[in-house]
# Entry
Amino acid sequence: MAARDLYHEIVVIALEKDGWNVTDDPLVIPAGKRKLKIDLGAEKLLAAEKEEEKIAVEIKTFSGLSEIYDFYTALGQYKFYLYTLSKASSPRTLFLAVSSDIYHEFFEET
# Structure
């Protein structure tokens, strides 16, 4: 079993508190001859439409020696996963889970 990110269980708990059902831990997506493992797959029933919304969540801790290197690595991985989900015709929306500090530093528009 691969090592999990520091925030893995926190993200699972947050998703469940928000009404998501974690269906895959990890979510395995075919990518040619290989299989990608995105940290989580989850579904939520949309009562008004009686349809399910599906998401994939990649969790990143940014605990390396360089936050900028971690940012580039996470961004590249996110883009590749997005491309792979698209090629697999997956109905899932991809999210990148990071701490609020990292979000404010790298992703929030100023």
About this structure: The longest strand covers residues 51-59. DSSP finds three helices and six strands in the chain. The mean pLDDT is 89. Residues 71 and 106 are 8 Å apart (CA to CA).
